[in-house]
Each structure stands twice: as C-alpha cells, then as structure tokens.
Amino acid sequence: MTRPTSIPDALRLAAVYIGRYGWFRGYLYDSHDGCQRNCHVHRTGMFPASMLGAIRAALVGRPKWYLNTTPDGTAEAYAATLDHLNRHLTNYGSAGLRAPVIPWSNARGRTAAHVVAALRAAASTAPRQPFDGPAGLAPVVPIRPARTPANRASNGAALFPLSRPA
Fold first, then answer.
1. Distances (CA, A) of 27 to 15, 85, 100, 102, 152
2. Cα angle value 96/16/50 (rounded, 5°)
3. Which residues is 6 bridged to in the sheet?
4. Do the beta carbons of residue 119 and residue 45 sit within 8 Å?
5. Are the C-beta atoms of 79 and 137 separated by less than 8 Å?
6. Between helices 74-91 and 112-125, what is the axis angle to 10°?
7. What single-letter DSSP state applies at residue 129?
C-alpha cells in the first residue's frame, strides 16, 4: 500500500484494506485471540479492521494501535479523514442509516460489503486537496491530564487552605 495523499485516497485505501483483510465489528482491529498463531492473520500482520482501523492502516501502511509513533502529519490526516467520514455518514447515510461512524458500523445487519460501499461513497464526496495542501490540516492539540488535587499539590499550590482546629 502506498501512503495516501488526500482524504479520498485514504478512504479508498481503507475500503481496499477491508475488502482484502476483512471487516471487524468493534474498535480498530480484531485481536485474533484463540488461534495457534499459525494463520494468515498472524503470518501477514494484517488483521481484520473496523472502519477506524482500516483508515489507520491505509494511512500508515499496516495496522497501528497508536498514532503517536507514526510519521508527522498522520494524526492530522486521520482526524481529517474520520471527520469527513462522520459528516458523510451523518448527512448522506449509507445502507439505509444516517449516523456517525461507530453507531453506523455497529448497526444490526451491517456487513463488510456495506462498509466498503460506504467508504467508497464517502471518498466520492471528499475534498480532493492533499493533506499538506494550501488549506492545510488543523494540528492535533495535545490534551493535558486533568488537574486533580494530587497533582495540584505537587505543583506547590494547596487545593484547600488548611485551617487549624480552634
């Protein structure tokens, strides 16, 4: 697989991935537990994927659980592709349902053929600009951990003023 350069490319390659390696109703990839590790999945490293996992695999070239170890721009490309897919499935729908990606893909009666068709349809409505094109992609904003009493105190600031008993 070659690295896609636009949202339509990523969606088309995700459809190819699911067509070739299978669809997984769940989050990212089928962990494929229970086999003797002597199957096609374990030999190739290409696991059946959900829509989210197939997009990641299309962007990276193989299944990838974490995007923080991918080339620069991959997380932004993933976010832009997933955003478009969400908008497409919510506005146009596919296979008789309008819903965001996860509820759409987990709907009763969903098949791999529905998923492949939805990815191809979303590719046809996606903007053709390259990921690093003139409009660029919004950066992924790192989320800092929530401030809890434990880490506030470690910064030297007391959460509650201590009062002495009378």
1. 16, 16, 14, 9, 34
2. 60
3. 130
4. no
5. yes
6. 100
7. -
Integer Cα distance of 139 and 144 in angstroms: 15
Tell me the pLDDT tens digit for each residue of 142-161. 555 666 555 555 444 444 44
Task: Calculate the CA dihedral of residues 123, 131, 73, 136 and round it to 10 degrees.
Answer: -130
Among the listed residues 50, 67, 51, 60, the one whose alpha carbon sits nearest the alpha carbon of residue 123: 51
48 neighbors 29 (Cβ within 8 angstroms): yes
What are 92-133's pLDDT values in tens digits?
Answer: 988 788 889 999 999 999 999 999 999 999 999 998 888 875
User: CA–CA separation, 4 vs 108, rounded Å?
Assistant: 31
Domain-by-domain residue ranges, the chain? 7-126
The residue whose two tokens read 């197939």 is 54
Q: What is the 3-state secondary structure (H, E, C) of 42-63?
A: HHHCCCCECHHHHHHHHHHCCC
Reading the block at residue 156, the tokens are: 């030297």
pLDDT at 81 over 50: yes
155 Cβ contact list (under 8 Å, min separation 6): none
- Is residue 163's pLDDT more than 60? no
